[in-house]
Structures are given as structure tokens and as C-alpha cells.
Amino acid sequence: MLKIVLILAFLSVGCKMIAGRWPWQMLSTGKSTREQAVFRARSLLGVRAGATHAEITEAHKRLVTMVHPDKGGQNAQVHEANAARDVLLNELPDRR
Q1: Which of 4, 46, 63, 74 has the fewest CB atoms within 10 Å, i.e. the most exposed one?
Q2: CA-CA distance, 36 to 5, in Å (whole number)?
Q3: Plot region of 76 (φ>0 → left; ψ -120 to 50 → alpha; else → beta)
Q4: Taking Cα atoms as reference points, which of 47, 87, 50 lies closest to residue 63?
Q5: What value does the mean pLDDT take over residues 8-15?
Q6: Residue 77, C-beta contacts closer than 8 angstroms, at least 6 positions apart
Q7: Is 94 helix (H, G, I), strand (E, B) or coil?
Q8: How far apart are CA 64 and CA 19, in angstroms?
């Protein structure tokens, strides 16, 4: 049993050294956490991939009016909407 554990540990370290990722990371969907966050934010706000600043803010306002605590929603939903807006606005290219 100890031999198997040592072999697995050795193979895992070798994989990390060669590929730069642990074996269990290679089994994931292939998307980075940043890409996943952007996908979730777009899904939550209901905007397309090339959405403009105005489209993102309008979708955010629309969502917040639906989930605001005064309308029967929860604070967590408002915070999630704000985070989604911030993620998408940070993805926009600079306007220089």
C-alpha cells in the first residue's frame, strides 16, 4: 500500500514539473476560473459576449430592480449582481 502511495505521489510531482499542473487540474473542463467567472456573470446578467458598457449597466439595473430586498429579494442576490457587473466591466478593453 505504501508503495502505491509513493508511486502516485511521485507521478503527481512529475506531472506538475512537466506540465505545470497537478493531475486533478488536468481533469477539469479546461476553462480557467476567470473564464468561468465571466461566463457565470454573462449568464446572470443575460448579456452577450461582446456587450458594451451601456448594455452591461442596463442589464445590471434591470436585475437589481428584480432582486432588491425592497422587492422581496435578498442582499446576497444584489451582491451577486454587483459582482457580475464588476467582472464584466473589468473585461472591457480600455478606452484610450
Answers
A1: 4
A2: 33
A3: alpha
A4: 47
A5: 85
A6: 67
A7: coil
A8: 43
How are the residues of the chain apportioned to helix, strand and coil, as percentages rounded to the nearest 5? 75, 0, 25
Give the model confidence (pLDDT) of 53-95 as tens digits.
999 999 999 999 999 999 888 999 999 999 999 999 999 887 5
> Which whole-number Å values give the CA distances from 52 to 8, 16, 41, 75, in the listed order?
48, 39, 14, 26
Q: Angle 75-91/33-45 helices, nearest 10 degrees?
A: 120
In whole angstroms, give the CA distance from residue 84 to residue 82.
Answer: 5
pTM of the predicted model as reported, rounded to 2 decimal places:
0.65
Report d(CA 16, CA 40) in Å as an integer. Answer: 29
CATH number of 31-96: 1.10.287.110
